[in-house]
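Input chain follows. Return structure tokens only.
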Amino acid sequence: MRGLVLRWILSMVSLWLVSWVLKGIEVSGFWSLLFASLVLGIFNALIRPVLILLTLPLTLLTLGLFTFVINGFLLWLTGQVVRGFEVHGFLTAFVAAILLAVFNSVINWLVRG
């Protein structure tokens, strides 16, 4: 349980960093950021595996790079669902998905180290 909460907090920090770097992502406050990271985590747990399975040939053809498109779509979808968390356009969501992967990797590496 502690690990899940820690991952949620780290995901929230990554999402905040992405919103700070990109102008196309706006967060209106702490609670919006907290709820957006929760919803994104739920989407990643429930919807992402189905989308990856449905797009498996395309993902294999692009050597896994299509996964960033799926992650961008889920980030955009989170912006549509969560009030106070806005993602302006799919291209912004795609770039944010790449940045989110980088930030999550660095933060997880720092926490483990």
